[in-house]
Every structure is written in C-alpha cells, then in structure tokens.
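idk why but the lab printer keeps eating my pages so im just putting this in chat instead. protein + zinc ion:
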Amino acid sequence: MNISLPAKLSKCDLLILPLYASNTPPLLLKDHSRADFEGKTNETVLLYQKDKLTPRILLVGLGQEKKTTTEIWRQAGGTVANQLKKGLSKLAIIPPKESLRLILAFIEGFYLGHYKYEPFLNDPERQQTPLSELQIIIQDKTLKKELEIKLKELQIITKTVNSVRDQVNSPSNILNPTQFAKNSQKVTKKSRKINCKIFDEKSLQKINMNCLVSVGKGARDKAKLIILEYKSKPINKRPLVLVGKGICFDAGGINLKTRDLEYMKYDMTGAATVLGIFEILAELNLPLHIIGVLPCAENMLGENAFKPGDILTAYDKTTVEILNTDAEGRLILADALAYAVKNFKPEIIIDVATLTGAAITALGYDIAALIGNNQNLTTQLKQAATQVDEKIWELPLDPDYKKEIKSDIADIKNYSAEVGAGVIMGGAFLEHFVKDTPWAHLDMGGSAWTNKAKSYYPKGATGRMVRTLWQFLKNYKPTFD
Ligand code: BES
Ligand code: MN
Ligand code: ZN
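predcted complex ->
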C-alpha cells in the first residue's frame, strides 16, 4: 500500500475521522452534523454524502482526549479495519492530533486489524480487498519527515506480524517441520546478512540431540533444527540467542490429548515468532549479532514414538525421565538451549514457547508469562513490552519449586504431578539447561491464539511478542558481563 502525507485531501473511497469525545464536527462533514455520535472509544458511524472527494466518512471514537493513550489509538485503528466495507481501497485519514506516537499506533492497529488468514478461501468475496493507497493529512512539516521514516519501519513490522500469523494459522498438514525449514531458508535468501543451517534427523542424532529426535520419532516428518544467524557491525561481543518452540502439531504423543486438538497446530508459535524477527532483520538493520535456534517436530504417537517411562539423554548429557510425553516442548527446548550455551556462549538467551496450558489458568489469553534467571534481562523485556503495549507478567523461579524437577531414577523428570504451578515448573526445567547464561522465557500458551476477534487481533494467531522482541533488540545495550 502506498502511503502519502499531503497537507490537503484528494479523492478517496473512504475518509477516516478519528474523533475525541470533545471534538467539534469537522468542516468536511458537508451534509451532516455530528448527529448522535458521542466519540466513545471504538464507537463508529459511517456517513454517506454527495461529494466526489469524500463519498464516505467513517467516524471512530477515541474517548476523552485527556485520557488518551497509544493503545486507544491502536484499537481505534483496529476497529476501523474491522468496519471497512469490501471494495474500498483508497483511504484517507485526518488525525485529530498531529502526534507521531498516536498516529503510528493508529496505523499499526489498522494494519494488524486488517489481517485475514485466507490462503484456503476459494470465494473471492470472502477475501480482503487489497488496499491501494492511504493519505494521512498532516500540516506539520517536521512531523511529516519523522512519519515518513517511522512508517517504513512500521510497515515492515506489521507485515511481519501478519506473516507470523500466517505461519501459525497454517494447518500442520501444510506446515510440517520440513516445510518450516523451507520457509526459513526463504527468509534467509532475502538478505546477505542472514545465514541458515538445517539439521535433519540423521545429523541431529550424530550430535546427540536426543530429546529433540525422540519427540519427533512418532511422526512421519521427523525433527529438524534450524539455526539462523544475523551479524552486522555488532555492539555485542557474544551473540544474543533467540530460541523458539517449533512443534508443528502437538497430539500429546502416547499421553494423547483428549481435547482441543485442532488448536495444536499453533504449537510452533515460538519458532514462527523468532523467524519473524529474522524476517524483519532481512529488511531493517540493527548493530547486533543474533542467532535463532528453532527446534521443530511433530509430537505424534505410534510404534516409533517415545514413551512414558523412557529415559532420554539430552545434548548436555543430562538424563531425563519422561513422565508425560505431552510435556514435549521443554524437551526440544532443553536440547536447543544446551546447544546454544555450548556452541555460541551467548550474552543472553530468550526463548519463546507455547509451553503450557497452565499459562491460560495463570494469566488468561491476553498476557504472556515471563520467567527468567536475571533481573536485568526480565526488566528490559518488561520495558520493551510496555513500550509497544503488549502484556507480559513475570512469575517467580521459586527455589523450592525448582527442586521438584529432580527424578528418582534419572537426573531430572519432565513432569512433576504434585506441584501445580505449571508455568513455573516448565521454566524450572528449562533453566537447568541454560546454566549461568542470563536467560528469559516467554510462555505464550494462552496469548498466542484468540478464539474471539478483538480489535486489532483477528480470530486465530495473535502474532504477539514479535513487536516486544523487536523493541527489546532495538533498545539492547550490552550490560550482561
Ligand atoms: N503445547 C502444550 C501447551 C498448550 C496447551 C498450549 C494448550 C496452548 C494450549 C504443551 O506441550 C503441553 O501439552 N503442556 C502440558 C504440560 C504438562 C503435561 C506438564 C500442559 O500444559 O498440559
Ligand atoms: Mn504437549
Ligand atoms: Zn506442546
């Protein structure tokens, strides 16, 4: 979509007018008064008028001006996207305040809200109309210059959030580990600064990634490990490592799940999120050295599947007793984290994973759980999340809970029935494999997916944490020595 920033409006299909509750009727409303539009947050009114320049006007409420926030503007943008009638492709907006942050938030909400997962919709009537142009009417010349730069970045980021959503919404018969690896290679080819290496089952066996290989055993399409590397005049001496859980389908394994199996295609959200960061890096530079580690597998059942009671030897030689094959995410992450620690000696590690259903019990569907072993790192992640209005909440890595991963007959076990605190126990298991490396873990079990469309989150994959991680990387200063 072509964005322009003129001072004067020219012809469009739809003029968008965000209004505060206190705003007086704008002059552009030729045949109408403001009527009964009150300007409450996300309230909309569509007006038609006999005017060639602006045949349609959509008013959208922003609530009280004194209480305004970036999130209110972002949601208003999402609301507009949801109200957009089919066939309209030339849009214009007159913001009621010429503020960089607020305008950017509105456009961001609009792009994110306009997303639809449609590769499998044959009927063109059910597909989104591609948007051809957007005029943002702006008077302030300095603001115009700032907006031009920031809008480029915003378009790349929102495009990527939507492509992460596409990956996550893809069914597992289409997106299996092999296909995920191919998609990663495609991203790599976009930039000479990114390299990609893929391990198949045989090469994973050779380097003793036994947990990852075992989880993938029950499926026809076996486990893969994808390593992505970006380096451009880095300010960090040792790499930042991002790890993402890539379970393309989680049946639970021999401990077969009994419900909600159709959602378990979204169990590769973590891997898709990390791949998304590299997708942005292919287009926008950061002075950093970043490595992505994406263990991918399908957790299936069958004669080759790993079994409850099995003892696996992880990459770092830790022996793990399997007490539930459905706690597979921590197993593939264990190998990935241990591999990263040994081979890259990272400055920090962040992993992203739909690790537990317990994340839903603890924090519901909007808030990701955060756990870590380094306060500096968790604080920086929380700050980044706040900057982009995504929600994360830290849970404690309690020392008494940590002890509970101990097994009677192996070093540790992958499931501890009596403890409760599912999110923390998942974190405690992972921490074992990062040793002393500053590390943080984002559990997106609840926040990766929504069954109810909410403003700029359409139904399905949310694409959360891409914006937080990108903001974190932009803020990054090497302070972890
Ligand atoms: N992928 C699931 C977690 C999940 C469940 C995410 C529902 C989103 C919605 C994970 O592999 C899993 O099955 N976790 C188990 C862990 C338990 C066996 C310790 C869970 O949460 O029940
Ligand atoms: Mn599982
Ligand atoms: Zn899982």
